[in-house]
Sequence to fold (255 residues):
Amino acid sequence: MMHSGSFSFFSPHFRPARRFRCHLEYLPMPLNALYSRVLMPALALLIGSVLPTAAHAEWREIPYDDVAKMALGLQAVDTQHIFSLHYVFVPGKGQTTLPADLQLQLKNGSTLTPLPVQPNGEAAIPLRNDLVGHDLQLRINQPKARTALQFQLGARLPPSRNVSYAQLTESLPVMERAIEQMAGMMRFMAPKPRALLIQFAPGPTQTLQLFLPGGGKQTFTSDAHSVLHLPWNRDWLRAATLLSAMPVEMGIELK
Fold:
């Protein structure tokens, strides 16, 4: 699923969710295990090493820089606002609900600033470049076995079922630029977009027809999870597409 390499330009603690989402709390692992699918709503990209504080063992901390750098890098190149970015708490493994007393704080030295968490788990984490590089910490009052923090990334949906391949895949070159910018000289080892993940509502198999300028046609179908994998190919930018139904979410698969 992944290419080889050990460099991560996001954080040494990323590990991928199955699709569209990125958990923020896993142990370090090499790059070939870091990314498989990013949602977009969920792309995917996981951060955060969890360390309890000495004074309050029930709280754990995640470096703010690790949580914010992917989103800030993406925002810098996403001038057309193609992506939507969210931080969301989800129940831990084996859990079905969020803790009723879930709290999130931003720690800056000795100053603790409460950050709102909505009933659905969405967390209001500020994304500001001026906060990076100052050893800020995000503090959570629950063990990671009880709840995990996810970075959820979604791509803009097409306006209709019949759009150009270039418009349908508009998020992929933006993600490429974001990765290249954050990876710098190590971009040759960084993951690259491989496909657009198109999520349909549960139900019958859906299709996408690709009409090439020279007259050729290809058909792609959704899988058992109602997700259609559309390969990223710059040679198809002049092609037209026809979806059998409107998608409900779109994300990016990385290689």
Remarks:
- The chain has two domains: 21-155, 162-254.
- The CA atoms of residues 19 and 99 lie 24 Å apart.
- Helices lie at 64-77, 165-168, 171-183.
